[in-house]
Amino acid sequence: MDHMSPIERWLRGIALTVVVLFFMFPIFWIVLMSLQTNETILRSPPSMVFEPTFGNYVAIIAGRLDSNVASMGIAFMDNLWNSILLSVGSVAVALLLGVPAAYAFARHKFRGSEEVAFTLLSFRFAPPLLVLLPLSLYFQQIGLANTYLGLIWVYQLICLPLILWIVRGYFEDISPDLEHAYRIAGHSWLSTFRRIALPLAGPGIAAAGLLAFIFAWNNFIFALVLASADKQPVTVGALAFVTASGIQYGQIAAAIVLSIAPTLALALYAQRYLVEGLSLGAVKG
Amino acid sequence: MSEAKLQLEAVDKIYNAGGARQVHAVRSLDMTVAPGEIVALLGSSGCGKTSTLRMIAGFEEATRGSIRLDGREIHRLAPAKRNVAMAFEGYSLYPPLTVRENIAFALKSSSLSKTAVAERVGEMAHMLEIEDVLDRYPSSISGGQQQRASLGRALIRDAGLYLLDEPMGQLEPQLRALLRGRIKFYIKERGLTAILVTHDQTEANALADRIAVMEDGVLQQFDSPAHLKDRPANLFTGTFIGEPPMNVFEAEVRADSGRLRFGLSGGVVLDYAEEEFSEALRRTLAQKLRVTLGVRPHAVRLAAEGAPAEVTANQWLGDQTHIAARFAGGSIVTVEHHHAPYAKGETIGVVLGSADLHVFDSQTGAAISHGGALA
User: Fold this and answer.
1) What distances in angstroms separate CA A78 from CA A81, A154, A225, B201, B359, one per listed residue?
2) Rounded mean pLDDT of chain A?
3) Which of B47, B88, B97, B201 to pair with B302, CA 20 to 30 A apart?
């Protein structure tokens, strides 16, 4: 970047600022809203000058929604907890199943391997509503409806194909001879997988895991149909803010800020892995 | 060769067996390597030499046949249990480790102390001239340095057999010549047994005690470099070994009144006294109508009384001259060790001595005779 002229650097800075502003403004606005009461939010014209209040956050964390008409309980913190449990659980299961499977698909071409891998990917083609009706019917019968286990199971439709196909590509990028070199030095197949393949594909696995986490976190339809109130994640829980006495914009904004916080924190933490993951292709076999 | 170090018996390798794209890469290969021997697998791309090496290492399963190392059947064992070391053509150094760690890694499972490991890594680095890059990462050094590091990682181990896949392909010529000598000394000094795969004849000649020439999955000849050159088993090895390649002519054999004559196309006749050929050979040749003659370019003599040939190209390579000429309906190449002045279009006399004549069967390509005696 040293060879750029000052003008180029300026233009580059301006372009970046414009892009960041464009994408960050809604989030910025939500944060502002979360610090205001419904009255200041709805005044016209809108203004950025207001007395900040943490009332919305207090209401959400305490679980009491007070409007000017009535006061009612909300279970948003439970929703948040459900979201964390479901997303972490389903990504963990998907990693546990998907990474070894991805390795197998990348390294061992067996009869029908492509077909199996493709079938797994095809779960992502079908609209979720297509499978939801039959799923909810037999989940009722076998007692999986409205359980964390059942939801994590269904979430595999989202996470497993994603992890399988992304991680498989990373494994395929590692030269098989790298593993051969380790195996011929007296190491078993399993320790080669653990000591060579896994660390080298690590950034890719982290990237796939993060992506799967975000997809799981943002899922709406599976939880809406298959979970009742006490198992609902934030995406479904947010519906509760549309009350008979109006829409509580301030609380919705505070809830949104709280619900994007875990994903944002995770993304920031995993950022360096993501960058590493993208540059892994530069490693010569 | 009372006891064999490595023994391959009737080994076959078939890829995609039964499939539409079945490839028979190695065909009933028999090979015995003696302890302390360096063997080169030589052949062009796709001849089955790397498949053979990978079957010995255990990365490819032998479709049929058995492989024994130190009297132990290894072809069903996992690579880890075979006690072989290998240097890979693609280097395959572990990217997160430095060159030093990569080489020392091979000794991790041995019971050597830290200082002993450091010492051996140091010696190895000194031998391979990579001391200055020991603390760098594989991605930041050149291909030649990576290749030497990978070679070091293989040679530093205490293994029963060392497999080297194109071990010096990436090195510059001077370094290659230097390292050839050092590596050969290292292997010989320790009495190690090694198999190297190469398509470079010079490398095979310089390093190996015996060379296995392969083509199309079939072992053509397994012999010392000198024998490969003087007594090629068939037309393939004859033309494959040697640079520039052997001159080959189709000939009609005629024997009468104490002379043995080979009629080449274009009316050229090579006329020899019959006692230059052994009686057994004469009897064999009498049953053949047509044979294939081979003469190495270095053995072609230029003399005024020889058969006429018209110079088509004259290349001075700095230490020898390669002269190509139109001869007997085809072309002949000869090598002179001085700066020969022949110009294009000039006529020269070509003499082919009976002692330099290799006769091959025209149908099978098998060698009939080398220099007047039966093969």
Assistant:
1) 5, 20, 18, 74, 92
2) 85
3) B201
Residue written as tokens 């072609």? B300
Residues facing B87 on adjacent strands: B164
Buried b (16+ CB within 10 A) or exposed e, A252-276: bbbbbbbbbebbeebeeebeebbee
The pLDDT confidence band at residue A284, using thresholds 50, 70 and 90, is very low
Contact B147, B169 (CB under 8 A): yes
Exposed/middle/buried for residue A68 (C-beta within 10 Å: 0-12, 13-18, 19+): exposed
Residues of B with CB below 8 A from A199's CB?
A: 96
Do A32 and A89 sit in the same domain of this protein? no
User: What is the side-by-side strand order in the sheet with B247-256?
Assistant: B269-273, B259-264, B247-256, B290-295, B358-361, B367-370, B373-374
DSSP state of B67: E
Say how far apart CA A209 and CA B67 lie, in whole Å: 44
* Residue A120: predicted pLDDT: 84
Token readout for A210 is 């993060």
Please answer yes or no on whether A177 and B90 come within 8 Å at the CB atom. Answer: yes
Structure tokens at A82: 């459900």
In angstroms, the separation between the Cα of residue B80 and the nearest Cα of chain A is 4
Are both A37 and A117 inside the same structural domain? no
Residue A202, pLDDT > 90, answer no
For residue B89, the 8-state DSSP code is T
Query: According to CATH, what is the number of the domain B6-231?
Result: 3.40.50.300
pLDDT 10s digits, A62-114: 877 666 666 667 778 888 899 999 999 999 999 999 999 999 999 888 888 88
Q: Is the pLDDT of residue B312 over 60?
A: yes
State the Cα angle at B190 between B184 and B191, rounded to 5°: 85
DSSP 8-state assignment for residue A183: H
**In this complex, is the C-beta atom of A63 within 8 Å of any C-beta atom belonging to chain B?**
no
Does a structural domain hold residue A1? Answer: no
Range of the domain at A82: 76-282
Please report the pLDDT score of residue A68 as a whole number. Answer: 61
Q: Tell me, which fold does domain B247-374 have in CATH?
A: OB fold (Dihydrolipoamide Acetyltransferase, E2P) (2.40.50)
If asked whether residues A56 and A98 sit together in one domain, one would say: no
pLDDT, one tens digit per residue, over A258-279 is 888 888 888 888 777 766 655 5
Between CA B274 and CA B43 the distance in angstroms is 37
**Contact: B84, A184; criterion CB under 8 Å:** yes
Task: Give the ipTM of the model, two decimals please.
Answer: 0.80
Q: Which of the listed residues A51, A73, A95 is the one where a domain comes to its end?
A: A73
Q: Domain ranges in chain B?
A: 6-231, 247-374
Is the domain of A66 the same as that of A102?
A: no
> Are A59 and A136 within one domain?
no
Same domain, A110 and A251: yes
Query: Same structural domain for residues A51 and A149?
Result: no
Q: For residue range B188-197, what is the model confidence (pLDDT) as tens digits?
A: 999 999 999 9
For chain B, what percent of residues have pLDDT higher than 70?
Answer: 99
Enumerate chain B positions whose Cβ falls within 8 A of a Cβ in A. 57-59, 78-82, 84-86, 88-96, 105-106, 108-109, 138-139, 146, 150, 153, 157
Residues B320-371 pLDDT 10s:
999 999 998 889 999 998 888 888 999 999 999 999 999 999 999 999 999 8
Total structural domains within chain A: 2
Are A107 and A227 in a shared domain? Answer: yes
Where a domain ends, among A73, A98, A130? A73
Q: Do A283 and B139 touch (CB under 8 A)?
A: yes
Phi, psi of B336 (to 5 degrees): -115, 145
